[in-house]
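debug: dumping io for the single-chain case to check the tokenizer round-trip. Nothing else runs in this session.
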Amino acid sequence: MDRRESIKSILLGSVAGGLLLESCGEPAEQVSQKIWDYQYGRNAKEAAVDQELLQTSFFAEEERSLVDCLANLILPPNEAGTVTEAGVVPFIAFMMVDYPPFQLPMRGGLMALNAKANRTFGKDFISLTEEAQKSLLDTMAFPLEGVDEQPQEIQFFALMRNLVLTGYFTSAVGIKELDYRGNTPHVWDGVPQDVLDEMGLAYDPAWIEKCVDQEKRNETAVWDEEGNLLT
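debug: decoded output
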């Protein structure tokens, strides 16, 4: 099992309990169907807060480029999709303003990464070869267990890794790669006829039309004031 398959296995085990996140992309306004772009379930006040956050900029241009570089190193492109297609960098930018405690470790970590690159290779991280970039990240890629007790650079990389994986695997691209179908309704054609015959039961034709008509499967049920199903 390769690294990407291992990540997918971890994510599939985490979907039921919520997001994995515990601790150069397109502009946020051009990103759709992402975890932060709520299509329903928001009242007017919540929607207004979301829009304000989406318009708030945290990263400077050079920081955003560095985040994009790191995201592609953590989760390289493959035939299933890329972090750019998944809107990972806009997601991370959104999380910075949605959860301010992330801001200091993120900005400090980016600065420390560039400082380490300059000390080691005499260049900013983004100017290094991919081989040199990976060699630096290998010193920071500590296991998640006990990460809070590790040096700051390891905590930064753990935060970055979690943000990248959460942003990717909660996007339409990432969910498709996981082949996760938990939120997809299945077609139900009712109890099989042979079972009904064996039990001596039968459906009321009126209920068949209301409940097992697949042409109406995307319609929202309507009830009267007495609790009777209308459609």
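debug: round-trip ok. The chain has ten helices and no strands.
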